[in-house]
Each structure stands twice: as structure tokens, then as C-alpha cells.
Amino acid sequence: MTLKKIHDDQPKEFKFSSENFKKAEEILKRYPAENKKSAVMPFLYLAQKQNSNWIPLAAMKYIANFLSMPYISVYEVATFYTMYNLAPVGKYFVQVCTTTPCLIRGADKIVRLCKEKISPNENELSKEGSCSWMEVECLGACVNAPMIQINDNYYEDLDEKSTKEVLESLIKDKPLKPGSFRGRKNTAPEKKQITNGEKHA
Amino acid sequence: MPKIIINGKEIEFEKGMTVLQACELADVEIPRFCYHEKLSIAGNCRMCLVELEKSPKPIASCAMPAAEGMNIKTNTHLVEKARKGVMEFLLANHPLDCPVCDQGGECDLQDQSMYYGVDKSRFIENKRQVKEKYMGPLIKTQMTRCIHCTRCVRFATEVAGVPEIGAIGRGENMEITTYLEKAMESELSANVIDLCPVGALTSKPYAFEARPWELKKTESIDVMDAVGSNIRIDTYNWEVKRILPRLNNDINEEWISDKTRYSCDGLLKQRLDVPYIKKDNKLQKSNWDEAITLLADKIQSINPNEIGGHIGDMVNMENALSFKKLFATLKSKNLEFREKKFYINSSEKINYIFNSSIKGIEESDLILLIGSNPRHEATMLNARIRKTFVKKRIPIFSIGDPGELTYDYTVIGNTTDDLKKILSNGHEFSKKLSSSNKPIIIIGESALELESGQYIVEEVKNFLKKNNFISKEWNAFNFLAQNASTVGLIDLKVLSKEDEEKNSFFEKLNKNQFKLLYLLGSDNLDIKKDNEFIVYQGSHGDRGAEIADLVLPSAAFTEQNGLFENLEGRVQESKKASYPIGEALEDWKIFNLILKKLGKFNDLSKFDSLRKEVLNLIPNFTKLNELPNFEEAQEVNTSSEFISESVNIKNLDYFYTNSISRASKTMSECRQIKQKLRKTGT
Fold it and tell me: Span B111-125, mean pLDDT?
């Protein structure tokens, strides 16, 4: 299953909620009126947020009409960018980074755990329906490799034990706190928290 | 003019040209896939790489503007290597299925890989496989072959005005598709088949029919509408296999409408091959002798005043003239070609042609449509309006609602009163009109069918004359004819005179006063048959043959030479590509048979003499394929009757307008799909 193919089961209608509608109007103000279709990307993101993390066809049509664009243009944009999901994902959407630095630090073990705990295949909902996972390319947190992204949060410095805990917490619907799982603060060195400046001051 | 050096040769080029265009000026061939003269520049195939002095990398010549003093080299080792590299990448995912590909023999990729490619593949990985896409009944897809030049995407968005094709996904997963795989809702959709440089989009009706080198190619003229698009007819023996556009920048550029392209399978079906005579209420096969004897007997026994003749929408001028001569010999004046009564002032040529010319549309700065839907009535002309609209964003207005066109327009009224207001300067639009430099007013047949048709034509003309818009430099007055034969037949004066007998033909027809009605390829005439003897002479067993008592088979437009005058008054020659089926004859030969039987055979009725006579009869004629001379319009003082009425634009059944398209299976499919789209509204 892939998130880039149109899902079979589509909702009939889509409309921005009144709150999102206000946000959309704010976004529109960023662009000159004759170039309002520039707003298509933030709009798609807004729609994805509103519709439990995936974009239905109805939303693309709605956005196309909103911005007076042809349907196909919105469709093109939505299929081009990897962060737009065109099929349902779990309430907890686990993205496992498997690019080189994370892989060296053991991302393959995380993938194996995801297969065990969530579902044997990528982008498949877990048994209880609250999780799904996929492999992704570099998420830019190589210093804290290996890492996973769950919805908007980064879970870093993982090993098998901590990953298991994180995944189990998702299944129980009580997610752990994001951040480093080795007690680091952001990307700071682990033991002595000194910076170059301090030593030579 | 700036100068550029190409392969050591210095040439002058026009400002704004690209390096590729400059190379073409220097007769240097640059291979390309994505670049197309009539489309915007994409620069994504990279096949046109050339070397530019002082540039560390080769440049894409199609996207690089030429500049003074550039030193371009196209025959160096670097260029050769670049082309080979690009070609290798293009072929990496292209299947090796040329033997079963319809594009074989006319494939850009095939040709260019022969010239610029490498002879073997180093690519040992798996090739990608892409699912076929549904794009309607005309376009067959084989998307694995696609090289992503995006010509089809640009065509649909820019020229056709229906942004329905796009490229979805990215990188290796990029695919060209219509939105949710729906049929493209355009009358120009099949042009993407010609544009496609590989075999990804090929013709569905022509699939596996023939190879290009087996076909005989004849350059001819289209008769599906009055635009007179230039076409190439490809035949295999008798059969017309396909019709392709021919470049003519004055008329159709490089495109033709789907109807022009795909009605040709109608030439194989429903054909009349032998004369038929109605016996026992059933048409039965007969022979020429019997048929002509029957017809001659009828003619001799009927008063000439009770013989009527009607000429159809696809009859060439020679045949029409010989028909007119036949009627002159019979001493009957009841000749007509209009399908419905509409106003024509045949005294001057400017009254019934498209004076601004199709190419002239590009110069205009304002367009007013009166009772006309150019999208269906003259598709290629509509494409030109869209081109101008896209380029200059000109304002377009309409009186009467034409429905969906391929550009934005404003309806400024639905009644003749609105027009009257404009013409008497009492409308806000009048100011816009008189302050524009090169306006175009297009009057459609729907407007002329109104009771106040005469008022519309004469008053619009007077208004334009007063504002100095009818002159040699710019003529804003345009009549949009619908049928291929219309303008030519008005020139030959094949219409009942209005002033003398007040539309005698239609009067008599409606009152069933004809005892013999001779239909020459005429299928769209509304006839309530009483007990007249109807003779139908034509190529197809369609509406005319259905009600006929005597059917004479004749040749279709692809099977005989003939002149057609398009809506601009441009006389063009349609050429014989095939030969008539069975015992069918050219129309003028049939008339000669009749005259012989009647004992009034005239030696002059040979084809060459007919053509000479036709050319002499055409007013303001200049040359074949050229626009007619301009002639100063005269003031018309006849008070024309004004009636307040609403302007309704008749809804053309686009894919079913004539006997050939009605016989075509492909056209029926297109029509069904369109109706389905209309119903579901998506």
C-alpha cells in the first residue's frame, strides 16, 4: 500500500472548518491576489491536518475551486510532495528514518520492531487501528540517530528497548514524551555540557 | 540585427529567439523531444544540448535565449557525448517494443536514437512499468513508453484550454494522466497523438491498422466545418485509414479538430454503392440505366416550377455549378443550399465571409460574438481566439449565451434590443467598441436565422462603417459560416432570391408544392414528406436517403477533386485520395448522364471547364489558397425590420453534424461520452 495512490474509500464532501477557514483566509493574504494559487501547498497541509492526517479527493477539489485552479494542478502538487498523505494513516503516524546515519546506528532494528508491533507492511493500519508506519528518507536529525517521527514530534537516540516502549505506549494510546531517549538535551554532548567557547574563554 | 556564431558561421537572428531557433536559421539540425514551436518551452528532455563557448557545461538550446556574440558549436565531441548520454537515459526505461508499437516508422525517439544514440544498452536493471491510462475513445495509451516531454500537458493547458492532463508523482514514479483518468473534454484532444514524440499516446481507432510507409498520402482540405483545415489523407488501397493535419499558419496551424480527424471511419460505412429505387415501399437495388431513365421520365412529366433542388453541406463548387446548370437546363429556379432560412446579402462578398481572417484574430483587441458558438461551429477558429486570449488577455463579449467556451467571456445581453442599444451608442459597451483599435464582430448563423437577421447584418455593418472599422487595413465585420459549402455556394448564387419571390424555396417546401425534390448530398434539411418524388444523390445512406424514392450513389469528398471556399473566402482544392465505391460516380458525371438522357447534353460539362467557370464566377477571387480582394462596402438604405426577440444560440450536436460523422463509429462513441459527462456533471 502506498500513500501516493488515491484511496478507494473517499468521503463525499470536504469543507474547511470555520477555524481553518479563517486560517486559510490569513494564508491567502500572504500572496498577491493574481497569484493566489501559490497558497495551494499550505492549503493542502491545512486540509491534511483537518482530515486526520490525509487528503481526500474532495479536499483537492475544494481547494481547486477555492483557488480557481484546475483539479489536475492540485492533484499534481499533492502527488508530488511526499509529506501529503493521499490515503488514511493511523492516529499515530510513525515515520522511521532509514537513511545512512540512522541505518548505521540501527534503524533496521526499529523497522523490524515496527513490523512486529504495528503491522507487517508499511502504511498498513495496526490491529487496533491507531497506528501505521513507513520508512522515510533523512529527517535531518542525524546527530540523534536513530530516530523516528510520530506525527509532529521527533523521538531520538533510540535503541531497541526504548523503541519498544515508545511503540507500546502508542498502542496504549498514551504516547511517551518526545525528545532524546538517552537523556540528552537537544543535540548537546552527553556527559560534559561544554561548548567550544566556554573551554577557551 | 544581432549576430551569433554557429559552427563557425556567423548569422543574423531576430531578437527574442532561442539558440535552437537560431540554429535552425543556420540550417543546423538540433534533436529535440520536448520543444515544440507552438507550445511554451519546458526544457526537460535535455536532448537539445549544445556547446556554448566559455560555458563549462553544455546548454539546453531550446531554453537559452540567443544573445549577441554567442559562439555555439553543435558538432563537437562534447555535444555528441551529451546527446548520447541523454539518449541512454531516455532509453533506460523505454521498452524495446518498436515492432508492436504504432508509432514505429514515424517515431522521433526511434529516428533520433538511430542518429544520436548508442548502439547497445548498459542498463541491466529492471525497466519501470506504468499502468495504461484511460484518456477517452480517441487516445490509446501505453504509458511505459512515455519519456515525460510534457508536450501533451502543455497542449491541453495552452492550446486546447482544458487543463485536464497533468504529470503526477515525481522522479521515477512520474506519470502522465488525465484527472482521475477521465476522457479529455476537448474538441482538439486527439492532437496530443501527433504531438507525442514516442508511442505513448497513439490513435485508438487507428490502432494496428497500418504502417506509415504503406499508406498513400494525399494533401487535401477538410469539409467537416467551414474553416477548411488543411489535412493529409492517408489511404491504404480504397480505404481512408486516417486523417492528419497539415501545417498552415493562416488557417489551422498544426492542429485539427477531433471531428476532422476521426470522421474518416464514417467513409467506410453506410455507403451507397449502387442506385436504389423505391419499390413496394422499400429501397431496392437497381442500376444506372434504370435509375436515370426513371429520373428523366419524372423530370419530363413535371412542370419545372415544381422541381426543387437542395445542395448539402459538403458539396464542392464544381458539382454545385453543374447542378445549377442542370437546373438551368430544366428551367427551374428553385435551388437552395441553406438548411434553414437565414438572411444573406449576396450582393457583396464582405457580407458573408470572415473578413478579419483567421490569422487576423491575433491582431484584434476586442471580440464580440453575436449568436455564435465558435467552439462547436468552427473549432479551429475558436482555438485561434483562445490563442489570442491567452497571449493578450483581450476582452471577449457575447450576445446570447454560447455555453462553455475555452476562454473567459462576458454575456452582455440576450436579446436583439441589447444589440440595438449598442448600435445606437446607448450601451456602455458601445464606448469600448468604438475606442478599440481592431475589434472583431462575429455574427453566427443563429443570429441570422432570427426575424431581425437582416437588421443585425446591415446595421452592424453600417455601425462599423461609421466608426471606420471596415477598410482595407482592418475589417471588423465577420460572418461565421457553419458548413464547408456555404460560402462557395453563396458565391455561385445557389439560393432563392429573397426580393423576387420571398424565399420561394422554403415557402414551396413547407407547403409541399414540389413534385420532384432533388437532394444533392443534403441530409440536414427539414422535410415533411407528402407525396413529392424525392431524389437523393450522395455518398451516405443517411437522413436524405431514408426518405428518398430514388437514390443515386456518388463520391464522398475524399474521392474526387473539387474546390471549397472556407469561411474567409479562401478557395482551396480538395484532392482525390481514393476512388468512389461500387458503381458510385462523381456528381457532375451523374448530371451529364441525366442531360444525355434528356437529349440536352452539353459538351462543356467537363471537369476542367467546370473548374474554369467556377473560378471565373467567384467574386474578388485572387489566387487559390489566398484571401479574396477587399471591396468597399456600400451603404444599404433599405430599411431593415427590427423585431425585439431573444438571441438563442442553437445547440449543435457537435459529433453528429453531417452524414459522414453520423456514419462514424468513433464519433458516436465521442458523443455518448460527452452526453454521459453532461448528465453526471463531473
Answer: 89
How high does pLDDT run on average in chain B?
A: 90
Which residues of B fall below an 8 Å CB-CB distance to A? 157, 163-170, 173, 178-180
DSSP string for residues in A51-85? TTT---HHHHHHHHHHTT--HHHHHHHHHHSTTS-
Chain B residues closer than 8 Å to A75 by CB = 166, 168, 179-180
Query: Alpha-carbon distance B190 to B19, whole Å?
Result: 30
Q: Which residues of B touch A73 (CB under 8 A)?
A: 163, 166
The DSSP line for B603-636 is: TT-SHHHHHHHHHHHSTT--STTSPPPP-PPPP-
Closest chain A C-alpha to B173 CA, distance in angstroms: 9
Tell me which chain B residue has its CA closest to the CA of residue A77. Answer: B168
Cross-chain residue pair B167–A76, CB shorter than 8 Å: yes
A71 touching B, CB under 8 A? Answer: yes
Q: What's phi and psi for B145, nearest 5 deg?
A: -80, -10
B179 vs A contacts (CB less than 8 Å): 70-72, 75
CB contact under 8 A, A80 and B169: yes
Q: What per-residue confidence (pLDDT) applies to A198? A: 63
What 3 state SS string does B238-283 have? CEEEEEEECCECCCCECCCCHHHHHHHHHHCCCECCCCEEEECCEE
Work out the pLDDT band at A200, boundaries 50, 70, 90.
low
- Cα angle: A13, vertex A16, A22; to 5 degrees: 165
Which residue in A6, A57, A76 is closest to B166 by CB distance?
A: A76
In angstroms, the CA B323 to CA B316 distance is 11
Mean pLDDT on B281-293? 93
CA-closest candidate to residue B442, choices B347, B378, B370, B502: B370
Nearest chain A residue (CA) to B177:
A72
Rounded percentage of chain B residues whose pLDDT exceeds 90:
69
* pLDDT score recorded for residue A193: 62
CA gap A196, A174 in Å, rounded: 39
CA distance B175 to A4: 12
Closest Cα to residue B222, out of B188, B268, B262? B262
How far is the C-alpha of B666 from the C-alpha of B136, rounded, in Å? 11
Alpha carbons B262 and B622: distance in angstroms, whole number: 32
Q: Give the residue on A whose Cα is nearest the Cα of B180.
A: A72
pLDDT of B599 above 90: no
Tens digit of each residue's pLDDT (9 = 90 or more) over A161-188: 999 999 999 988 889 999 999 888 888 8
Residue of B nearest to A76 (CA): B168
- Is A26 touching B (CB cutoff 8 A)? no
Q: How do B335-336 and A131-136 pair as beta strands? A: unpaired
Segment B609-630 shows an average pLDDT of: 91
Contact B168 A79 (CB under 8 A): yes
